Amino acid sequence: MLCCFGHLLCTVHTCKTVVSTFTEAKLISTKLIYSNLIDRQQLNHYMDSTRASQQEGPRFDSSTSRWGWDLSVWSLYVLPVSAWVLSLYSPPGGPGPAQLSPSLAAMSLQSSTPEALRVVNLLQERNLLPPTPIPAPMPCLPQDLQKVNCNPEVFRCTLTSIPQTQSLLNKAKMPLGLLLHPFKDLSQLPVVTSSTIVRCRSCRTYINPFVSFLDQRRWKCNLCYRVNDVPEEFMYNPVSRAYGEPHKRPEVQNATIEFIAPSEYMLRPPQPAVYLFVLDVSHNAVETGYLNVFCQSLLDNINALPGDSRTKVGFITFDSTIHFYNLQEGLSQPQMLIVSDIEGETCLIFLSISLVQDLLKNLPNLFQKTMETQSALGSALQAAFKLLSPTGGRMSVFQTQLPNLGVGALQSREDPNQRASAKDIQHLSPATDFYKKLALDCSGQQVAVDLFLLSAQYCDLASLGCISRYSAGSVYYYPSYHHQHNPAQVERFQKDLKRYLTRKIGFEAVMRIRCTKGLSIHTFHGNFFVRSTDLLSLPNVNPDAGFAVQMSIEENLDDMQVVSFQAALLYTSSKGERRIRVHTLCLPVVNSLSDIFAGADVQAITGLLACMAVDRSVTASLSDARDAMTNAAIDSLASYRQSVLTIQQPGLLAPACLRLFPLYILALLKQKAFRTGTSTRLDDRVFAMCQLKYQPLAYAMLMIHPALYRVDDLTDEGALNINERTIPQPRVLQLSVEKLNREGAFLMDTGMIMYLWVGRNCNPNFLTQVLGVPSYTAYLLPDLDTAESQRTRAFIGWLRDQRPFSPTLHIIKDESQLKSSFMQNMIEDRTEAALSYYEFLLHLQQQISK
Ligand SMILES: [Zn+2]
């Protein structure tokens, strides 16, 4: 049955037989090697030939700054053709997605899209950007599979056609990996309540749209090919209320689905939602004025914090000492307890939600006159960890300076004079392992730490950030935060807090990514701790977190026409339900380089390379990472020229699907994370690196290559009509000063920040009808009753609605200070330190023709 939100709430009532003998929870302690052994044994049933072969796995060859390939020997088995037994059984009721064979028979492997492979001479074609934002490429699959495939906003692959062998992948010189946004807010999410969750007995894959039914009683796993029984309970379809339709169950009709888990998925009773706020109240912190904003935001949103009657909220404040607050029911007002012996036994006071409002109203005044300048952050974190350990939960830390007292104290490592001149940037890795170790302790107790850094000074984010990175937390950063001097940061902090406090949250989560036998996952990107080879420990999971993984092909995928990937996220909801969200992606396997190139997803490739380059900057050097990114463009275009192009022609040639690759690589080289020659504060750089690793692809792409629009002449021509609102659709412009002019107004969308740059001679009509005044220093568009104002606000509102956070809008005059931030994004132009786009293309061409 469908509830009013379109959620599918089905309860299967009859059979209570538990088919699953292993649970996700038990698997936590199961070594991967063991499950591999099971896979191999099962596969022996299907194998009539074996052979040993050499396979290659990716590694980075630092001597040449290329992502190279490592030789290692694997004995492997090759599946015979007969093992790929597809649907022999045609269930009554017409074709369903689970019937693979007729579809695959019709699937042409030569069906590469001609447009994707159209040859583009980059030196000649200047207007490469499509007029509107670029959608993800669709894998070349039969329509019935495509129809049920996972949404690319949730799950996508760098190559939408998977190479049959690692050597073919090596030849293509493109990275193979997955990009995930697993806990994304979804408007439509089927939710299933069932006492039996049907999974493969061998590899534990959840039944999904890409399995095949051999007959009504048996289904074949699409990851390990084990034939499994269909449990009796699964024979009943709660949607149609019919018996004998296992292929029509919601689990087999939806690539994204959520299960409410039975008790066997619980290691312990589901934890309550527990929120602990750890607040810097030193002199420096009070000066910034952040405490007022924080307390007011929490007061405004306290009833919207996700949770139920078991929810607990607590506070710790700290400077050189640590202060706890007794909020137990029955007290007439909160009691503050000061623990000056920071190494001593901490006072564990547990916390009920009453009295919180009283405390929040008084907290900003309590420390108004403090002269305490020291910061014992490390000890405060340890105390907070002790407080949260018995239950797990979320720790939100607000810090405004470099911690300088007790454990975890840090020293400034930044030399501002070196910012622009140094070729290689030092101090990108942590100065101490204190924060990482504490994060791992937190992870073990199901505690995630989110860090809000509000500071005018260097705070060593490279060290502090570890507390969030390994505990699956988030990092927020507000450089030069001040309640009076920086109203834009205050506005952003307020908006971020609202989203942060009210967004969905999952506790004590783990995520496992499985893929079809033969493929292997080897490097993960994002904030988490890798508990076993393929299991990510996520004490908290939030809907704004992205992940990426790299993959290699360990065994030839010779007889496979499709492969599948499945991400399963097991978590406790804020209401104490154990839930499993499962996403399954299906992609075709191809055996020619041209098909691989035709399926390249240039944005996913760029996103994955950015993650790899962040790692490379830390483990080797920034220049090494920069060289590697440039080489990635050179190598893939050289491979295309040598192996795919049949007619050689002059120029720098790329297939249409990769035409933006050099532009994106250049954009990465000029991005705050990787740029050189421009003064970049170390914390700004490290924060950009954190974001590239942590943001879902859609937002990371706006950070890398912002979208530029002219907005002073918006019209209704070609506009969208959504909910009876007309949304103008101006063209996306190249990021070059030549696209600007002083008579216009231009909107630049960088994801977190939007700039509205108003030219000096901008049309007076725009100034009065949209900005409302001749002078415009604000960062809010007035709500005017003019057609121009409505169009502009509709367009900006539409852009904002496509992301869960609210970007700050800066309206900048022709010659304001912020103009330099705007101009720094003009990626195609030459700067003193960096090549223009055209020069970069010439450099690539020179390297390719060597
Ligand atoms: Zn399986």
Automatic annotation (TrEMBL):
Recorded family membership: Belongs to the SEC23/SEC24 family. SEC24 subfamily.
Compartments, record wording: Cytoplasm, Cytosol; Cytoplasmic vesicle, COPII-coated vesicle membrane; Endoplasmic reticulum membrane
UniProt keyword list: Cytoplasm, Cytoplasmic vesicle, Endoplasmic reticulum, ER-Golgi transport, Membrane, Metal-binding, Protein transport, Transport, Zinc
Domain Gelsolin-like, residue spans: 727-782
Topological type in the membrane: Peripheral membrane protein
Domain Sec23/Sec24 trunk: 270-501
Annotated protein name in UniProt: SEC24 homolog A, COPII coat complex component
GO molecular function list: SNARE binding; zinc ion binding
CDD domains xref list: Sec24-like (cd01479)
Lineage, top ranks: Eukaryota, Metazoa, Chordata, Craniata, Vertebrata
Domain Sec23/Sec24 helical: 601-701
GO biological process, one term: intracellular protein transport
Gene: sec24a
A GO cellular component annotation in the UniProt record: cytosol
